[in-house]
Amino acid sequence: MERSGSVNADPGPPSDTNGRFTQWRNWAGFWLLGLCNNFAYVVMLSAAHDILVKQESRNTTASNFETLGLQVGNGSNSSRYDCNPVSTAAVLLADILPTLVLKLFAPFVIHKMPYGVRVLLCIVMASSSFLLVSFSSSVLMSIIGVIFASFSSGLGELSFLSLSVFFTRDVLEGWGSGTGGAGVSGALLYSGLTQAGLSARVTLLIMLVVPFFMFISYFFLLVPPSLLPQWRSRETEYAVVGSEDRRQLMDESEEEEEQERSTIVERTTGPLTITEKLHVIKGLLRFILPLGLVYLAEYFINQGLMELLYFPNFSLSHAEQYRWYQTLYQLGVLLSRSSLCCLKIRKIWVLSLLQVLNAVILFVAVLYQFLPSAWLVFVIVLYEGLLGGAAYVNTFYFISKEIKDRHREFAMAASSVGDSLGIAMAGAFSFPVHRYFCDL
């Protein structure tokens, strides 16, 4: 039994101007939510490092990572690869592991928390992350700030992907484009403000406006449907809907049929059981595994190889080359995450294989140093971003299209673990690779 107006059907032509305006508001709202949700995650990868440099010397930082059991590179910087003593994967792991843990377990219990409460929690944690890192007086305080940003991003991603099932499917395009925009705007805004002479602390305090925009986007820009559990849990909603449907059944059917039909309503509108959720996850593996593989290869390139792709005789310095690699990668992500209106790719595994091929080519390039110029790397990393962004938006688009209505909300949240799992594995693999090359 499906309730009318439930969710996520592709809309027909809007019947009036008001319908088109509502559709535009929801698309814009999800675009801003994607931008705001990933913004702190992106900025922390750079800002936390800048703050830590002021607190401790590079050698002290490296020894702290060694104390935690993390492999570090050649601190003497005598390697022909011009290595930093600590792999950039160290900061990545601090920024992704809390998100991964949250995505692994939250989908099984998150329905108990209303969407309005989740969004407020994301806003509080994102704001706290900016405040903690900007005013940090110790390494531990900075790391806690990064963890807050990670929890905010992870909770927001699985919540907003689940939220999208209450709207027309085109909001996924807005969400994907917004998350892609976070990478470009976060990197450019942070670099621009610090380049203009502002300190990292002042820059982070200015960025407190981003959680405020998330508040405005969710509570004032979106036009939520009546079925959205804004301030009550899904279980409460199921109980209310189930009792209403049972009363209707008693009015419309014979009394001897009431018990059988009410059982059908319970199965259709009640919360998913653990068995059902595990069955849904099994069916989602065809989406999760290719997405995880794309991100494993992608972030292995970004955190394990990109720093080592240095061309000494190029017109740009090592830092400038690395900055342009990251910028072009983020540009590719933005373009492909905004591409659903033009192109939809069902075979995500093809994107996975192409991304793995990218990683192999660049690994061999680092090992044998046969690439003639950074210009070729610029093209490859732009292409890398295109593949990663396309895999992300198409994965969630086809999940929303192919999974049953009853399972869709849980499926969208559970599938978000794919990219985080790939990123975490890439961070772990990057440590020994970074150490190997830096010791040459």
Automatic annotation (TrEMBL):
Transmembrane segments: 28-48, 89-109, 140-167, 198-223, 284-302, 348-368, 374-398, 410-431
InterPro entries named among the record's database cross-references: Battenin_disease_Cln3, Battenin_disease_Cln3_subgr, MFS_trans_sf
Predominant subcellular localization, coarse grouping: membrane
Keyword hit for Repressor: no
Keywords: Lysosome, Membrane, Transmembrane, Transmembrane helix, Transport
Protein's UniProt keywords contain 4Fe-4S: no
Domain of life: Eukaryota
GO biological process: lysosome organization; regulation of intracellular pH
Bilayer topology term: Multi-pass membrane protein
Entry's localization field: Endomembrane system; Lysosome membrane
Region called Disordered, residue ranges: 244-263
GO CC annotations, alphabetized: endomembrane system; lysosomal membrane
Similarity comment: family membership: Belongs to the battenin family.
Protein's recorded name: Battenin
Provenance organism: Channa argus (Northern snakehead)
